[in-house]
Queue: 4 jobs
Job 1
Amino acid sequence: MSKDTPAHVGRGDGPRTGANGASRPGSPVAQALRDLAPPRHGRTFWSDLDTRLADEPQLRLSPRSAIRPITQPPPVIDDRNLAGNLKGDAPARPRTSRRTIVAVAVAVLVLLLGIAALQGPDDDVTTTDSTPQTTGAATTGSDSAAPEEVAPPVTPPPGTIDPAAALTPAGVGPLVVGTRMADLQAAGVAMQVDTSTFEGTGGTCYDAKVPGALDLLLRFRAPDGQRRAEDPVEGVLTSVSIESALPTSRGTDTGLALGTPQDQVLAAYGGVLDDRPHPFLSGGHIYRADAGNGTGIAFFTDGQGVNRISVGEMDSIRFLNQCG
C-alpha cells in the first residue's frame, strides 16, 4: 500500500464502489471509531474510582461449604474496597474477626479465673464473720443449722386401741363400759365373738376380743330389760380385763399392773377396798374399789401378787365369770 493510499483502503468499512464504479464514503460512526484515540488515565484515576465506589456498598456472598446449618445466615462481605483490592495499590480496610472476639472473651475469662485463684479462703470467712450474732438458740454465719423438720403426729385410725392405754373404771380407749357392740363396731372397733360362750349362756353373758388388742378380755351381757341377746351385736360391754395368761405391759391409771405385790394394792387404796376371797386360789383375794356411777376396778391376787385386773360394772367384776 502506497503512502498516498487512504488509511481505510482494504478495510471492510472503507469507501465502497457502487454499481457504476463510483466510490461512496463509509459510516460516520465507523469513521469516528477509527479516529478515537485510546483513553489515557491520570495517576489518581483508580484512587478516585475507589472513593466513589466506597459510597456505594454492595453485598456479596463469600464462597463456602455447600453444607451449613439452616440457622446460620450466609456471610456478608463489604466490597467497598473491591476496586482497590483488585488493583493492588490500596490497603484493605480492617474488619473485626469472629476469632478476635473469641480470643478476647477467652482472655477475659482466664483473667477472672486467675483473680479467683489468688483470692484466699480468709476473704469468705471475713464476710460471714461480719454477720451480727444473736443470743439464744440461734447461731450466726456458717455455724447456723437449719431447723429439723418435725414429723406431724400420726393419727391412729378409728377404733385403734393404743397398747399403752391404761385401764380405768370406765374402760380403755374406745372400749367404753356400757356401750353396745353394734355401736363399737360402727366406731371402727373390730370384734371377734366367742361363739361358745354366747351359745353356752344363751346370749346372756359372753366374751369377745379385739384383733388389734388381744391382751384384752371383753365381756358382754344382755341388753337392759332383756333376758338374752338374740344377736351378739345387741350385747352391752360390761367389763374389760387383763390377766397373767396373756402377758402385757398395760396397767391401770393408778400405776398398778400385773405382778404388782398385793401389799401395794392395799397401800394404794387404803380402807376403801372390798375384800373377797378368791374362789379358786387358796390365799388369793379379790379387791374391789368403787369408782361411782356403778363402775369400779378389781384386783385378783394369788396371795402374793396381782394376776388379773378387771374394770367395769361393779356386779360384773365381782367374780371371774359374773355378768351381773
Job 2
Amino acid sequence: MESKKILFTGSTSKQTDDNAWKRARVKRIDDSSIICNSLRKQGYIVERRKIKWGDDLSQYDMAIVGVGCFGSNNYSGDIFNSLYALHKIPNALVFYEDWKIDSNMKSFSGMLKSGALEKSVSKKWSNGDYFYGGVDNPNFDINIAKKVIQNLNDGFYDALIPAFDWGNKDIVRKIIKSKNIYNIDLSPYVVENWNLDLRPEPQEKKKAYMLASLVDHRRWVKKMQLTWPVVYYGAKSIKDSIKLETETDVYNECGKYRVILCPEYPHSGSGWFRIRYIYAALHRSIILTSLNDLKALGIPYKSIERLSDKELDEYAAMQRKAIFSYSWNKDTFDKKIKQIIDEKI
C-alpha cells in the first residue's frame, strides 16, 4: 500500500524545521519533532516545512498545522502562511502546542473585530518590512485568512494537544471549542531523547522549591505564600535565576529538591502536558501545582511545609503512583498517534 503523505507545518521554526530545537538555548526535543519522528518511523511520509500562499498542496493526504498567537513576535513570521494550509487541506488537524491557548484564542477573536485584521496586515517594522510574513505575497487573500481565523475561533477544526490521559479535556474544549480533541503524552520520547536515568540514586533533598521555566512566574509564587526558599531556573527576567545548558541538567537538578513547582494555568485540571510531572515522579520529589490538577490526578492537597520527613516521602510516593498510572510508553505513543492520523486520512 502506498505510504500516506502528511504536511507538518506551522507558525514557528520549531513547528516547521526538524533541526530548530537543536539551536535553542535549552535543547529539549520539541513536540513537533516527536510527532514527526514517530510517524516517519511507522512508514508515513512527513514533509515538515514552511509554506506560503499559492503553494500547490494537492499532493498531501492531510496536514498537521501548528497555530499561535496574533500580535506575538514569536509567531509573526509564518502564522498567516499556516492559515493557508488550513484553507487548502480539508482534513487538517490543528496543533495547539502553546500552553497559552487562552491568549491565543483571544487573539483570534480580536482579529475578527472591525478593521483589526486589515490594520494587522499593514503593520510594519521600523525597517519597512511587514510584521507578519507572507502578507506581501501577491497570492495572499485577506478574506480567506479572515474565514480561516473565524473557523479557528469557532472550533471548526479537530485539535491535537500535548496532554496526559488524566484530566478533564472539556476544560480545553471550552477554550478552543473543537469538538474532537486528541491528546498525546510526549514524555516517553522526551525521556529517551536525553537518555535520562530512570532509576536515579536516592539523595538528600533540600527543603526548598524548584521552579524551572523560561517564563517569570513570581506572581503565582507570591500568591502561594511559601516560606521555604524558591530557587528559579531558566527565566531571563529573574536576576538570580540559574541557567542550565541541557534538559538533562534540568532533570538532574529536580532530584535535589523536596518540591517541584508547576504554576497554574487557565486550563488547569485538563492534564496539559508538563514534563516536570514526570521528572518529579522519577526523582520521588513532590509536585506542587493547582488544586484543579491535584483533584484531576486524584491526589489530596497537603500543606507541604507542615509535613514530617516521613510524611513528605509518603506524599511523594502517592503522587508518583498516580502520575505513572497514566503515563505512556513509546509503543503507546506510536499506536495513539497512528490511530489519530488514520482517523483523519
Job 3
Amino acid sequence: MNSRLSVHIYRFLMYAYPVEFRRRFGTSVEQAFRDMMRDAFHSRGYLGIALLWFHVIPDFLFSVAEVVTKKAGDFLKWRLRLQWVLACSLGFGIARCAALIIGQEFYRELAARGIAGNILGMVIKIAIIMTSIGAMQSWVLAGRCFRKKEWMLYGLAGGVVAALVLQPLLLVVAPVQTGLVRWVEAAFRGDVRVLAERLVASAPIWLIYGAFTGFLQASAIRSDAISRYQWMRACAAGYFLSALAGGFSIPYSAGAPVDSVLRMVLTMVVSGALLGLVTSGPLERVLLNLQSDSKGRS
C-alpha cells in the first residue's frame, strides 16, 4: 500500500466522523496521519506503513465510536483488546506459514533418530510458535508497562523449557494417549470427533505449555496490577482453548489447497481470538492501573 493510496483511504474513512468534528479537527487529524505515515515509511518503508495501519485501524474504530456516542473511558481498554486479539491471530498465522515452509518431512527425519531427535523436533516447533506469537504480542504492549524484548524471550524460554521437561514424559505415556485417541475415533464422528481428539491428545499438553510460558513471561510485566499466578493461569487457559480450536495443528492437504488455506485462516483467527480474549483481561488491569497512577500524579 503506497503513501498516496493510504492518504486517500484515510480521508475516505474520515467521513465516518460527524460533520462538526470534521470541520473542527479534520485537517489536523489528516495532517497527523500524514506525519506518522511519512515517519513510518522513512524508518521501515512499506512494512512501516503496513504496521502503522495495524495500529491506526483499532484507533480509528474506537475513536469514531467515542465521538458518535460521546462516551469516553473505555477507549484504551477496547483498543488494547482488539489489537491484542489481532496480534495473537497473526502470531498463529506466521507460525503456520513457517511450519508449511519447513514441512513435515524435516520432523520425520528427526524422529527417526530416536528420543533425542523427537525432543529436538518438538523444541524447534515450540520455538517457532512461541517466537511468532510473542513477537506479534510485543508490538501491542506499551513499553512503560512491559519489557518488550524480555516478553518475547521469556515466552520462548517458557515454551522450550516445557518441551524439554514434557517430551520425555510424553513418550512414556504415548501408548495411553494412543488408546484414548482410538476410543475417540470409534465413539465419535465428524467435527465432534476432531474436537474430542484434540481434547485428549493436544489440549492438556498446551495447557501445561501455557502455564510455563505465563510463569516466565510475567517477569516482563513492570506492574503489580497482576500477579505471576494470575498471568500463568490466563496463559494456561488461553493456550488450552487455542489448542481445542486447532491453532497448533497444520491441517493442509495438497489435494484440496484452497479448502486447506481457508481452514488454516479460520483456525488462525479463532485460535488467536480465544487466546487474546482470555489473556486480555489481566492486561487490561495493567492498563487501568497505569491510567489511575497517571491521574494520581496529575
Job 4
Amino acid sequence: MENKIINYMCYTLILLIIVFLTLITYKAFFVQEEVDQKAEMISYNALFSLNGADYVEKKSLSCSVTKNGCMITLPKATRNDGKVLGYGLSPNDKEPKYKAGETISLSGNIILYVISSSNNYVYIDDSNIDYIDSDTLECTYYNTESSCVVTLPFFNKIGYEVRGYSTSKNSLSGFIYPNENYRITKDVMLYPVYGLSNHLKEINVSKVLNYADSIIEIEESCSENVYKSYLSYLEGINTYAPFLMLGSKISFIGDDTFNYIWGNGYVGMNYGPKNLRSLDVRCSQTVYNDYYGTMVHEMSHSWDFYYATKTGSNITSQSDVINLFNKYKNISNKPFRDYSYSSIYEFQADMMKYYYFKYLYPKIGYKELDFPEDIKLVLEKYICISKNGYDTSNCV
C-alpha cells in the first residue's frame, strides 16, 4: 500500500512538471507573438523633394518595421534639362548618397532630396583670330541652382590689342576679359573683340612663336641674331623665374617701328588690360642698354597685374610693398636708381629686376649691389605665393 502511494505521488509530480513546462512554452509563444504584432505596427515614412528636378515617381513611401528591417526602393526621377544623379540627405549635395532604384533600410522618418545637374556652354567664334586656348567651355550647376561660372580663355589676334569678349558680333569693346570669371544662365555665343592697340600702326610680323605661357611676335625688321639673343633671355627667365612668363604677347620690334610707336626714349614698354598684358621690346643691340634687364623689368609689370587676377589685388597694392616704397623714396641713399621711385609700379619692377640678377642669376653690375634685407624678404614672400599656386597661406 505504501508503494502505491509513493508511485501515485511520483506520477502526480511528473504531471505537474509537464503542465508547468507547457504553460511556460505557451506563455513564451504568446509573448513573442505579441512583440511581433507590436513591431508590425511601427512604420517609417520617406518623403522625396524634387529639389530642382521635374518629376519623381513617388512623392513618399512608407514601410513597416519587421525583423528584416524597414525597406523601401527609391523611385525614379527625371530632370528635363539635365540628369538625375540620385538622392541625398541635403538639398545642397552635389554627390548623391543613394541611387534611384536602390533598396535601402529606414531607421526613422526621412526626407530625401533628388540630386541632379545640368550644363551650360559658352561657344566662342574663333573665325577671325589667330589663337585661342579653347573655343568651347562647359560648366555644371546643381539642384535648384540656375547658373554656373566659366573662366574665359586667352585669345590672340596678331598685331592687335585684345579688348575682351562681347555677345555682339560687331561690338567695338568687350564687357569681360580673358582670365575673368563669367557667370551664365544659359548657352551663349561670345565674340572676341580686338583692335589696334597703343601701336599707332600695325606691325609687320614675320614670325609668331609660342613660349611657355607667352606668344612671341617678331617684326620683320628684327634681325635674327638679335631676337635669338632675346629668346635666350626668355629661356633664362623661364628657368629662374617662371612666374614672370605670364604675358599674353611679347613683341620684338625694330628700331624705326618702335620709335614710331613709343618714341626713341624707351627700350621696352608694358601695356594693356590688367589681366592681359603686352610687352614691346626694342629689337636692337647696343652696349649701353641692358636688354635682359629690360625684359625682366617689363615682365615684372605683367606679373604684378597677373597676380591680381589670381588673388584679387596687385602686388603693388599690398601694404608691405607700399611701406617699402614710401620708406626708400624719401631717403637720399636709395637702393635703386631714381627712376624706380617715379611710381610704385616702377619700384616693384626694379625690385624684381635687381633681385633676379643678384640672387637668381647673379650678374656683374647687380650682384655687387647692397640689396636691403627688408626688400629681399618682402619680395620673396610674393615669389613664394606665385610659385605655390597663389596660395597666400603658405608664405609669410
